[in-house]
Amino acid sequence: MHFVTGKHLPRRTFLRGMGATVAVPMLDAMIPAGRVWRDMATEPGNTRLICIEEVMGCAGASPLGLERHLFEPLTMGRNFELGPESQLLSLEDFREYLTVVTNTDCKMAEAWVPEEIGGGHHRTSAVFLTQAHPKRTRGNDIFIGRSLDQLHAQRYGQQMPLPSFQLDIEPDTGGGGQGYHSLYTHRISWASPNEPLPAIRSPRVAFERMFGQGYSPEDRAARRETRRSILDGIGEEVARLRMTLGAADRTAMGGFLEDVRELERRIELVEARNSSGEERTLPDAPAAVPDSWMEHMEIMFDLQVLALESDITRVVSFMTGRAGNRVFPESGVNKAFHATSHHANVRDTIYQYQQINVYRLSAMRYLLQRLRDTHEAGIPLLDKTAIIWGSPMADPNVHSHKGCPLILMGRANGALEGNVHIKAPEGTPMANAFVSLLRGIGHEDLQSFGDSAGALPLTPPSHTGRPVTQVTSRSGEA
């Protein structure tokens, strides 16, 4: 533990013991005596960034979906109006944190030459955060571009215990068709054009990565066997720290440690359930991976919130699925995800895909609520965070990359206004929106990114409530 008696706690304070390292969240005691805590909005580089890929577009990008406003709001500007069937209705009570961006394109995911036709699923995920066109290869000469999460991590995350944190829901299996390396399918974070960053699927592995527990796999296994918490090993450090804190800080510290323990218990319960011998929906998954997609999402969101709250990292990327055949019965649809996405413009199938889309987007409510309920220096963490949720694919039925869904969530320390719908002019690259966001969170010198052709303003003109101009057709790759 590192602090100076009679002065203030350093922001980078750790509790260590029994091979575990727990970073302390922001406390009043970390503010130097005689100084007023500066609003973090004045330091955009401190903005947390979460990037979440939705893998296969949305029903709202189909011709029927555009007509019925299944994704796109009815009006533009502030206080936008949603249609009665909108996918976004599940986030209605968080609208003050939503900047909905429509009509932007991910042209870098399109086929450029005849040999690339049919490879949409195999290259698209890698395009999302790079907005660059992947080199078609099965060899080691993979090449695409540096992803925006790594731009932020390389500038503002190098002093963090984890400069960035990559998470995933699915295993690294399959992919790599049509002459493309499988890494394009399984990686959205790229430290350089040929350096994809691996992602963690298991909540147990992610938890241990965050808290550095145990000196070896055997040590960690022994601790779990005896049901000892990582908090058991830092008890003396916690008690010593509490003696130096005021009442408010003791309460905040106690709440944070309880959240850590609750997450640890939740992972243990999943492991116990999946090791009981009962038949599993995901028989090949690690014991710490829930069979329920929604439960898995919530645990991964809990990990992210704790990581951001304790400043272990400020940058997270999260893949929420693959273009596979997983079924989401909780959505009310028992057809496979991928098969339903190829709806052939059949009305009933489009609406079934919409049900799946609504279910998957509704998972974001958990993250938004957790961030809104978590405070730092009296300010909700959601106000200090930029969340990118979107897909590099639009209408999956034709593998279109024109008019892709994109929602920017949070306030990003003032870079995002919220409760806004921005409809981009026809042909606008999604990268234009990313340029504006990056400039707003501390990259003022950024001239371009990916295939950007400028910056898309994320604040609307003063007049609001204008009806959306319909786009009746969006063709894509066959």
Describe this structure in words.
The structure is a single chain. This protein is α/β, with parallel strands linked by helices and 478 residues long. It is 29% helix and 15% strand. The chain has 13 helices and 15 strands. Strands 6-9-3-12-13-5-14-4-15 form a nine-stranded mixed sheet, sandwiched between helices. It is globular, with a radius of gyration of 22 Å. The N terminus is likely disordered.
Overall pLDDT level: 90
- Low-pLDDT regions: 1-7, 471-475
Anisotropy-based shape: globular
User: Structural class of the secondary structure composition?
Assistant: alpha/beta
Strand runs, count: 15
Question: How would you characterize the largest beta sheet?
Answer: 9 strands, mixed
Key features of this structure:
disordered N terminus; 13 helices; alpha/beta; single chain; about 30% helix; about 15% strand; about 475 residues; two-stranded antiparallel sheet; 15 strands
